[in-house]
Amino acid sequence: MDNKQEILRLLRSVADGTTAPEDALLELKESPFEDLGYAKVDFHRSVRQGAAEVIYGAGKTPEQIAGIVSAMGERGCRNILITRVSQEAADRVAESVPLEYHLLAKLAVAFPAERKQRGNIVVATGGTSDMPVAEEAALTAEAMGNRVTRLYDVGVAGLHRLLSNLDVLMRARCVIAVAGMEGALASVVGGLVDCPVIAVPTSVGYGASFGGLSALLSMLNSCASGCSVVNIDNGFGAGYLASRINQMEGLED
């Protein structure tokens, strides 16, 4: 049982008498998670949070990833995200389950399925070197059913590139601003749009950028209101949060 609709189906079947309350209780008891020994797969994540559990691929063997994904697929989960996974590991997992792999973002989608794309999230980068993190954010949001527009290499070193896309930015429900170096892009975007801005500092930059710490501190100190910050290189976290903002109840496509 992987989503709210399945629980509602079960409850309605109890209400109309096709399922005994005792059988429904047993199904609910069995559904929260499955213990695989090396992982406890959380099948109620989508009920609580609106999206299935995401697999962090780094540090897991291909066999472990395949086992987790297979267990989720058997419960009907689709568009299962696997983050920070290598090409080699993804190729081995793909031998046992349907898988789409995106090399730039080091992200895979298991049991890929079509989803209605809602709203509009804009993912913007300061430079081309920020694209791996930006793609992790964009692909995460797309897998969760969001329409995504990419604006890459529009940093403050050539501000006219960003300003030529004001119409795109101002139509967005949420903007993800991905930048390294001094991380100025988030503040500039935050001063232009009327929607939430999620700032993603990247580890791109020379020595004094301290592996993204400089961009992180700049973004945390942004004077633009409505700008929040995720961790360094955390494209997944930004894409997930943007999806929640974009799909808030009451917003129209």
UniProtKB/TrEMBL annotation:
<dbReference type="InterPro" id="IPR039476">
    <property type="entry name" value="P2CMN_synthase_LarB"/>
</dbReference>
<protein>
    <submittedName>
        <fullName>Nickel pincer cofactor biosynthesis protein LarB</fullName>
    </submittedName>
</protein>
<dbReference type="Pfam" id="PF00731">
    <property type="entry name" value="AIRC"/>
</dbReference>
<feature type="domain" description="PurE">
    <location>
        <begin position="119"/>
        <end position="251"/>
    </location>
</feature>
<dbReference type="InterPro" id="IPR000031">
    <property type="entry name" value="PurE_dom"/>
</dbReference>
